[in-house]
Amino acid sequence: DAKTTQPPSMDCAEGRAANLPCNHSTISGNEYVYWYRQIHSQGPQYIIHGLKNNETNEMASLIITEDRKSSTLILPHATLRDTAVYYCIVMRSGGGADGLTFGKGTHLIIQP
Amino acid sequence: GAVVSQHPSRVICKSGTSVKIECRSLDFQATTMFWYRQFPKQSLMLMATSNEGSKATYEQGVEKDKFLINHASLTLSTLTVTSAHPEDSSFYICSALGRRNEQFFGPGTRLTVL
What we know:
heterodimer; A: 4-stranded antiparallel sheet; B: mainly beta; 7-stranded mixed sheet
């Protein structure tokens, strides 16, 4: 599976949009981009995933560049409860059956 | 989304004892479950893949005789830490594989070995 690079930490003001970047320059054609987050002392929570089209659900939006070498997770109206470590994981279709490889993620801190 | 539970949420035990952690998928059947371990300020690391009715597959460096995994039904996998030592103290998290290959994680079990 392709490797990802994320900034170690980010701050965002409450109520503003939080934009979390992820670089995955070695992604291959059949690999998806998944985002999970982990709130302190809890299990990870699935957020969203996509292949090449932008995706949106009730939690977030995922913007993938045309060359698929990077993506951005957008939390449109961040709240204090969104403070967590966010993990960007690249995985081939069906690769979830192999277990997930977590990097260091981005520690997002929402400021009041 | 699908719900996965773990029991207990927190356990403290003496060195040399064994501890069993349960992972249940509450509203769906999971032929595959995973066990992860997370040390303080580190990321999750996959320990093993548990398949219903067959032997678990362990990641390199994880001792299968120390971390016993049983997946006897489509909704339950157990992890037993045998002869636990202080260095086994960690946050143990399970996940269950959904129909679309997404993983649903349990809330985790905090193990402290004295």
